[in-house]
Amino acid sequence: MNDDLVKGIRELQCFMQPYVDTMRRVNESLRPLAELILKIQQQYAPAIRALSNSCNAWIKDNSHTIDAIIKFAEQAQYWQKQQKQNVVLMAENGWFPNWYTFFYKPEKKSLSLDELMISHLNNCWDDLKTKIIELCPNRKHIIKVAFQLHESENYIASIPLFISQSDGIFCEQMKSFLFAGEKPKIVIEQMLCNGELQRGFFIDILLEPYKIKTQFSEGIRKFNAKDKKKAPNRNGILHGHREHLDYGTEINSLKSLSLLAFVVFSTKDMLGKQKKHLIEE
Fold first, then answer.
1. What distance in Å separates the CA atoms of residue 201 and residue 46, rounded to the nearest whole number?
2. What share of the chain is helix, strand, coil (3-state, %, to 5)?
3. pTM of the model
């Protein structure tokens, strides 16, 4: 039994010998490289230590700057979180931001959300009209009429146009109609996953309203006074439902315009520029 074991070991040694010899030659060939690396380490060790000491000294001397950067980053994250909550609150009450919303400073400070947005939209009315038409030239003939109808106080006619164009423009850019249930949210997530869109500090804020259901996109049966106060109901209006025949008010027309401006601002302008940049890369 022992003889067989010894014989097996010798056979294994004979079998492994070529590999052992090869590894020995590899080690010998690598020895100059290892020696070179050691020499480099020894040669540059003082410089590396000096660089490390300099970095540590700079960090110590500029700790206030680093603290300021960290504080700024924390404040930026807090601001983003707050703005996400703000745009969701706006959307839940039928209002949406545009190019000028975050910079608008009303003369009167204590305003309700409705008062603030009415003042804001009337203040930048001509700028919004120009911007929307500039970015949607194929819809110019419809959008101009929608604005004219509102200006002539024909809100019954302006509201369906503002809402329907919001739906179509969103579909042009995002490959899903805006009022298609959960599909817009799913499509946006897919575009983020496959790299067609990229998350960003401001982009993340603008995507928030598309993640929630608002009175605009609710079912026809959302027709009590509390719901109607939030926003006009797209399904009820375009289907002519008997419980949604009282939609033609100035505030509902302005809310519908704010939706249109937001869709153009977020998809045609902000997300459109990002998609173009990603394609060019």
1. 42
2. 75, 0, 25
3. 0.73
